[in-house]
Amino acid sequence: MFDKILIANRGEIALRVLRACKELGIPTVAVHSTADEDAMHVRLADESVCIGPPPAKDSYLNIPALLAACEITGADAVHPGYGFLSENARFAEILGEHNVHFIGPRPEHIRLMGDKIAAKRAAQGLGIPVVPGSDGGVASDADAFRLARDIGFPLMLKAAAGGGGRGMKVIRAEHEMAGGLALTRAEAQAAFGDDTVYLEKYLEQPRHIEIQVLGDGKGRAIHLGERDCSLQRRHQKVWEEGPSPALNTAARDDIGAVVAKAMRDIKYLGVGTVEFLYEDGKFSFIEMNTRIQVEHPVTEMITDIDLVVEQIRVAAGNDLTLTQDNVKFHGHAIECRINAENPVSFRPSPGKIVHYHPPGGLGVRVDSAVYHGYAIPPFYDSLVGKLIVHGKTRSECLMRLRRALDEFVVDGIETTIPLFRALAQEKDIIDGDYHIHWLEEFLARGALKE
Question: Which CATH number belongs to the domain containing residue 311 in this structure?
Answer without folding.
Answer: 3.30.470.20
